[in-house]
Write a structure and sequence with these properties.
Layout (H helix, E strand, L loop, with lengths): L1 E6 L3 H6 L2 H8 L3 E5 L10 H6 L4 E5 L9 E5 L5 E4 L4 H4 L4 E5 L4 E6 L6 H24 L3 E6 L23 H12 L2 E3 H5 L8 E2 L11 E2 L2 E6 L6 E6 L11 E5 L1
Parallel strand pairs: 1-2, 7-8
Antiparallel strand pairs: 1-14, 2-4, 3-4, 5-6, 6-7, 8-12, 9-12, 10-11, 13-14
């Protein structure tokens, strides 16, 4: 199973930049999208079906044009679960899960901490998400949590760790949470195969950051420890330019 995670920063804008044609070429079995910023009625679902993805699940935010996640699949899931059941997490459309025979794939869009109020919300979300996943793993042990975590794990994952150490997304407390989350039973699939620096998944639109590769690695496919023996490949796809993020891919045998 080939799985891609992609924060498209507005699915309609991404489609206008060739997203559907790219999707056909990339040809994942499942793609998890974040920040779709649209409702299903606003999305050309027939075009996506024609591209080979008949199974489409959208979970938009209550607020129009904001946040939202989706899962597009070639394979029919056994079950699809919208949200977490935790209201403060769900009204912004940040979590969607599809259960298949051998694993469950989750699309996650973790909040950013753009100001003090949002940072407090982000920490509450992270704590409650950890508890939610701990309970979920009791019944669904083979989890693949794909998405925009809005956190760089280690210094290798950001272009300037010194000057960004007080910026949300690289705060010590955020990094400690992500480290603990991984140690609770997940593999950073990209780092499992690649230990090299200068691999990022998001770049600011300002000051030519992408052209100069001054980026952050904040998008992950975290795979349950129980699936480690099935990990085949994990790569970042920086040549896809429909968004300020790029897709990240994992293959499971």
């Amino acid at each position: 199973m080939k799985i891609i995670s992609y924060n498209v920063n507005g699915i309609r804008a991404a489609i206008a930049k060739g997203f559907i044609e790219w999707l056909q070429q990339a040809n994942p079995d499942v793609i998890c999208l974040q920040e779709i910023k649209a409702t299903e009625e606003q999305i050309p679902v027939n075009d996506i079906t024609a591209a080979g993805y008949p199974y489409q699940y959208y979970y938009p935010a209550t607020k129009k044009g904001y946040s939202g996640v989706a899962i597009l699949s070639k394979i029919k899931p056994n079950n699809v679960f919208y949200g977490t059941g935790i209201q403060h997490m769900d009204f912004e459309g940040r979590n969607l899960r599809a259960d298949f025979d051998d694993c469950s794939v989750m699309s996650l869009y973790l909040p950013s901490g753009t100001n003090i109020e949002r940072l407090d919300h982000k920490f509450m979300f992270m704590d409650d998400f950890q508890t939610y996943v701990n309970e979920l793993k009791l019944t669904i042990p083979n989890l693949i949590i794909c998405g925009d975590y809005n956190i760089c794990h280690e210094a290798i994952d950001i272009h300037d760790p010194v000057r960004n150490k007080t910026v949300s997304g690289f705060l010590p407390a955020e990094r400690a949470w992500l480290d603990g989350f991984m140690k609770s039973g997940f593999i950073d699939s990209f780092r499992h195969f690649n230990k090299d620096p200068h691999h990022y998944s998001w770049w600011s639109y300002r000051a030519g950051a992408r052209g100069n590769n001054k980026g952050w690695r904040i998008d992950y496919n975290l795979v349950s420890d129980s699936l480690q023996h099935k990990l085949k490949r994990a790569v970042i796809l920086p040549d896809a330019v429909h968004s300020d993020h790029c897709p990240v891919l994992v293959e499971i045998e």
